[in-house]
């Protein structure tokens, strides 16, 4: 069976109209009509504020907002009282880096996105860096040797946004817990392509962004164990996060509201849930199988060329990073754009990983549930044309 036969949902996505070959889903995914419709209704006929209205429209919107929290939590196997809406994965990681009561040592890895490096630095953590295996996975044997009882936190990407390598989260959790540390998983690239069950993975925090799971920008989620969230002070101050305010003393609401100061991203939350529903209806197992087939085909097509270097393991999830000999990824990306093919070229917010790979940038093709063989064929045509231009 061809890749195209297993799953093709292009017509659900107005952003793909006109035959555009979108290979940048790891940056952000296109939106299905169901998400656009949910957002439009929430901004239109259903619009009202949440949590304070005495009128029916607001009460209904509050129900929809809290139902969205439940849907998003269940999407990753969690419970609604453990699900904090944030602006995205970046804010979720910043929240933990800032609010975790003890800023001790944190173990990161070479392949982390800047959003899982800089927040720890900004908040005074002592950062240790776990190396990678030769094929680009986080080396958990090395992590085991590095971890000490001084480590408060281990924070690792579930799927690398550059290499597509997949972390063995359960083992990382076991290693972290053995020394008394907590495990925060950056699930940005995993949530759109792997079935996530935070209970089975045994992690302590899980962060991801709606816009990568076919939902809107401006919202994401931090899942955390109830007892851990409960022990943390607020992130920001304002409305909605309080219990009682006086000028002498303010007491705070329990989680998740404690971490959600101000009027929340109401319409985005409703659309986020619509995206989770859309993805769940297709099934992450199918999406994963589909993307795995595309990665295998892409790696075979590019790997057969003598002018392309591939990065990352064979079984990478939905993402293929590569370099064309003698062609800067930006030039490749520009020529591909003329062919109607969108890839990402650059450091992918992972400069330490680029340094490790010894390159300033890579070209990256990343897939979504709507990607198919025509995208791969267009990519190869564009690479051929680039080769002709660069001689
Ligand atoms: N971590 C990873 C692995 C990512 O790919 C990204 C987005 N490129 C982020 C974190 C940050 O996500 P956001 O910008 O949506 O907060």
From TrEMBL:
Q: What is its EC number?
A: 2.8.1.7
Coiled coil location: none
An example of a Pfam family matching this protein is: Aminotran_5
Required cofactor(s): pyridoxal 5'-phosphate
Q: Reaction catalysed?
A: (sulfur carrier)-H + L-cysteine = (sulfur carrier)-SH + L-alanine
Sorted alphabetically, the keyword list is: Pyridoxal phosphate, Transferase
Ranges for domain Aminotransferase class V come to: 21-379
What GO molecular function terms would the record report? Answer: cysteine desulfurase activity; pyridoxal phosphate binding
Q: What class of enzyme is it?
A: transferase
**InterPro entries linked to this entry:** Aminotrans_V_dom, Aminotrans_V_PyrdxlP_BS, Cys_dSase_SufS, PyrdxlP-dep_Trfase, PyrdxlP-dep_Trfase_major, PyrdxlP-dep_Trfase_small
Please provide the Gene Ontology terms (biological process) for this protein.
cysteine metabolic process
Q: Which domain of life is it from?
A: Bacteria
Q: Which family does it belong to?
A: Belongs to the class-V pyridoxal-phosphate-dependent aminotransferase family. Csd subfamily.
This chain's function reads:
Catalyzes the removal of elemental sulfur and selenium atoms from L-cysteine, L-cystine, L-selenocysteine, and L-selenocystine to produce L-alanine.
Name of the protein in its database record: Cysteine desulfurase
Specify the species.
Alteraurantiacibacter buctensis
Gene (UniProt): sufS
